[in-house]
Amino acid sequence: MDLNPQTLLSVMLFVGLLTGGASCLAWLQDRKQTVPMWMALAMMLLVLGLVSRLLIPFLPGTILSPSLVLTSFGLIWTAGRRLRDLPPLPLVIFSPVIVWLALCCFPSFRDDQNLRVGLGLFLLLLPISLLGRELWLRAEASPVMRRALLTIIGLQIVYMFQGGVRALLFLPHGHEMPFQLLPGFARVMLDLIAIMVALSFGMMAIAKEQSERRYRDAARCDFLTGVGNRRDFEDNLHKHFRRAQESGAPLALIMVDADSFKAYNDLYGHRAGDQCLRFLARTLEQCCRQTDLVSRYGGEEFVVLLPNTDGDLALAIAERMRQGVYESRITHAGRPEGWLTISLGVATLRHQEREATPDALIDSADRALYRAKREGRNLVRSEIAQHRAEREREMQQTQETNGSALSEG
Predict the structure, then answer these.
(1) Cα-based distances in Å from 321 to 12, 52, 237, 341, 365
(2) Which of 8, 30, 341, 401 is 20 to 30 A from residue 204's alpha carbon, by CA?
(3) Which class for 146: exposed (0-12), middle (13-18), buried (19 or more C-beta within 10 A)?
């Protein structure tokens, strides 16, 4: 590719301004997402580095241009770290630059063009390889975009490695010529610009997807406790209820209420009440399995959805929750026990009932919860046990009636 310096300079400035401007606009739209900002800075430094190599005299350009290019790739790696919410590491960002500046102190290095090209390419391998690692670890990213970026990075690593080996081992050393006259100089510069553009738009796409996912999660998350909110619970309840009816699998629900919570707020203040609710949410999650879903139902009430769980197991989990809160010994002077306690109501889906609906399951758990509160609180009660007791009473009454009829006969 034969491009004169003026044409190449114009192309680089145009592409750099276009890509950097797009990154800045993306950042201004969502300043909590800093990936576009880091990519804009990286593009700016890359263009400055390449332009300085064309415009600045030999020695200053030799020192400045690669330093800016190496820093720009360090910023790209930082953008990759920000995708995983990791902080920048300035020492790693600038370590290739420090090595480059140290090498420039040796005249034998400064005066050997191919030696500089070869070692410069090898120094670029560090940040671009680290960027590949960040994208590889970012498993939640769009699989298509992630694979595309990893493919680009892999090809670039191979290209830089073979270019470095060629410059160090197969090209003559100890000579110097104007940079514009080097064979393939335009291709190298355009390659750096092209990979920066591809990485910029690819990583901004991942960042946008990540922001949208966070907003969706925030809309389904209780801001105080961090567990699911009522909307999230109802969506999950209908989904698992439908699956349970289709497969005949068991489904259980636990309603949880903090005992005398208004008195707790009056005694210790609303800030302490908020901390208490966060503690309850953590404790309930710790008592659950990975498949169970804890949500805040409203106020001091929580609800736990237990897929593939029968009544006996649900009662055992509820009892574990009750004990976990009681044994934590959170002071509550408004309770007879002196500690914070919870009451729990358990219900299960009964497939044989025609009127079985998600709302009926909630009502059943709610009735069991209020039985626990009426009978003294700090208890686990279940509609299952109540139905069993009612059936046993009915059977006993039937047996007594049949026995009386036989005796009269």
Answers:
(1) 63, 66, 20, 10, 16
(2) 8
(3) middle
Tokens of 104: 């420039």
Q: Residue 407 CB: number of other CB atoms within 10 A?
A: 7
Is pLDDT above 50 for 389? no
Task: Identify the residue with better confidence: 360 or 62.
Answer: 360
- Sequential DSSP letters for 281-311: HHHHHHTS-TT-EEEEEETTEEEEEEET--H
Q: Does residue 184 surpass a pLDDT of 60?
A: no
The string of DSSP codes covering 87-138 is: PP-HHHHHHHHHHHHHHTTSHHHHT-HHHHHHHHHHHHHHHHHHHHHHHHH-
SS3 state at 187: helix
Cα dihedral sign for 163, 168, 172, 176? positive
Q: Distance between alpha carbon 171 and the CA centroid of its chain, in Å? A: 47
Integer CA distances (angstroms), 151 to 22, 125, 134, 238, 257, in order: 23, 15, 14, 41, 52
Q: Give dist(CA 278, CA 258) in Å, integer.
A: 12
d(CA 74, CA 94) in angstroms, rounded, equals 7
* Closest to 101 (Cα-Cα) out of 74, 121, 120, 78: 120
- The pair of three-digit structure tokens given for residue 137, joined into one six-digit string: 């670890």
Diameter of the chain measured on Cα atoms? 124
Contact 22, 196 (CB under 8 A): no
> Residues, the chain, total?
409
Q: What dihedral angle (degrees, nearest 10) is formed by the CA atoms of 154, 157, 160, 163?
A: -70
Is 90 exceeded by the pLDDT of residue 146? no
In degrees and rounded to multiples of 5, residue 355 shows phi and psi of: -85, 10
Residues 6+ apart with CB under 8 A from 358: 234, 237, 238, 241
Count Cα atoms within 13 angstroms, Cβ side, for 214. 13
Sheet arrangement for strand 293-298: 293-298, 301-307, 251-258, 342-348, 380-382
